[in-house]
Every structure is written in C-alpha cells, then in structure tokens.
Amino acid sequence: MIKFVSVGLTYPNLVNCLRNVNLHIQKQEFVFVVGPTGGGKSSLMKLIYRDAIPTSGKVFVFNKDIAKMRIREIPFHRRRIGVIFQDFLLLPHKTAFENIAYALQIRGASGRQIGQLVPEVMDWVGLTKRQKSYPHQLSGGEQQRVCIARALVNKPDILLADEPTGNLDPDTSKEIMDLLVRINSRGTTVVVATHDENVVNDYRKRTIVISQGQMIADRTEGGYLNAEEAANA
User: Fold this and answer.
1) Which of 4, 5, 14, 123 has the most Cβ atoms closer than 10 angstroms to its Cβ?
2) Is this prediction's pTM over 0.70?
3) Number of domain units in the chain
C-alpha cells in the first residue's frame, strides 16, 4: 500500500530531510514512526499525503508513483487518506458537526450525504452529544475526536496521525490511541508519528525509528527506541 524505494527529500533551503529511506507498509497495518524532532517523521508523512515529492528515489501509494501524479489526480489521492494534526486545526466559528461536514462539502457531497455520514462518524467517535458545540467549548480530547471524525468521514484507506496525543494528558491519550486501534481493526491502515514513549510501549505495534533523515530501525514487535538505542540495537 505504501512503499518507499531509496527515498531522499531535500527542501529548497538545502536541508536534507530524508536520506535513502526504504520502507514498505502493508494494507491494514498499524505503524508507529518515532524519532527526534526534525528527524524526518513529518516529511515522511507529507510524502504519503503528496504534500511533497521525493528529490530522489520513488514513493508509491496505492501502487501509484506520487511524483508522476497529475495535478488533477492529487485531490482524489488525498480523499483516500485521512490526516490528524497535533494542533487540531479546527475552524473556530464552526460547530463540531460543521467542522466535520466541511470535509465533505469541499468534495461536493450533497446535503443528504452530509446529514447521514456526519452523525454516523460522530457517534462512532463518541461525540453524538457534542454536535452543536464549538471548539472552545470542547476539551482537548474532544477536539482531537472531532479531528479524527473529520479524517474518517470520507472513509479513507489510510489514516495518518501526526503527534495525535502531543497535547493530551495520559488518560485522554489512551482513549485516543484506543480509538485509533479500533479504526485499524476495521481495516484502515494507520501510521502514527509520535514522541510518546509510553504510548509506543503500551501498544506494541510495528515501530520505525527515523533520525537525521534516515530510517535506523524497524521493529515488528514494537517498543520505543530512541535514536542512540536504535543505532546500537
């Protein structure tokens, strides 16, 4: 489903974000991507989402070379990928329902589709009673659930979560991670970039370590490794 072949990524300021990354993520896998800040985790996510293209090597998603995608193909590619951001990025003047509905509106969904899909996904993430609440009226965990619902409403094949527990307390972090595991159990491929050592150790999923732009460890049995530990493993 996701394949990196000798991938390098250099931004215009000549910063090398990724170097010679080889990676294969299968359909329905759950994968943690860990490593220090600036190590390349977010860049890896951007390549999957086609927010960047590799400077060298190839990235295949859904068996398509992302560098060869035509401009008009990119929105369709992204509809198959849900993205959850650490900073929520909710529209402050829209309710929880409206924030989720917006993801459908921009793809041209009908009012009938919105009326059916949004309550369904809000129920699934446990927000049925918060449909009319604005972001400032929601707790951090509830705001993250809105983000998850927004990412899920288009029924994506892949869910990317960039530091989904970064602003949350331990109990709420567990609730969010349990929800991501449930999403994965329903057949969605889930990739989580995180600094949260406890989360990675608790869930024991496949764990990839990225440091200084290089993939330095890939552990199928999971467990957090920092860059030094991974280099010596």
Assistant:
1) 4
2) yes
3) 1
